[in-house]
């Protein structure tokens, strides 16, 4: 994985988490319940945390492997974006239930990314 790809991915995810966070704080606050808003914010936080990790790893490119990169990238997409889809579809009255099982798969990939980072560090 090239440094340019990792830093670009991290930057896009970071930028989108700020946009989605502002969207949630200002526009969705009027539409979502407190519980829904908290779930939406969880997606935003996890997206930002992992964007920052990707950014750090991108600047220290000898630390990141393609496995770590893909676990974090796909994990963010499955975890955070499924939460966004579940919450927004629920607010519209048509909850996309098929997204429910996708969220834990994304979480598992995020955990796997951290595990691979640990293994990579100790090798």
Write up this protein.
This protein has 123 residues and is mainly α. It has one domain (3-122). It is 79% helix and 0% strand. It contains 4 helices and no strands. It has helices spanning 3-26, 34-59, 66-91, 102-122. Helix 1 (3-26) runs antiparallel to helix 2 and helix 2 runs antiparallel to helix 3. The longest helix has 26 residues, at 34-59. It is elongated and about 50 Å long. The mean pLDDT is 95.
List keywords for this structure.
123 residues, mainly alpha, 4 helices, DUF423 domain-containing protein, DUF423, membrane, transmembrane
Topology (elements, then pairings):
Layout: H1 3-26, H2 34-59, H3 66-91, H4 102-122
Helix pairs in contact: 1-2, 2-3, 3-4
Q: How far do the termini sit from each other?
A: 19 Å
Continuous helix count: 4
Structural class: mainly alpha
Shape: elongated
Number of domains: 1
Low-confidence stretches: none
Helix content: over 70%
Average pLDDT confidence is 95
Sheet with the most strands, sense and barrel status:
none
Query: Would you list the SSEs in sequence order as H and E?
Result: HHHH
Taking all Cα atoms into account, the compactness measure Rg is 15 Å
* Binned strand content: under 5%
Number of strands: 0
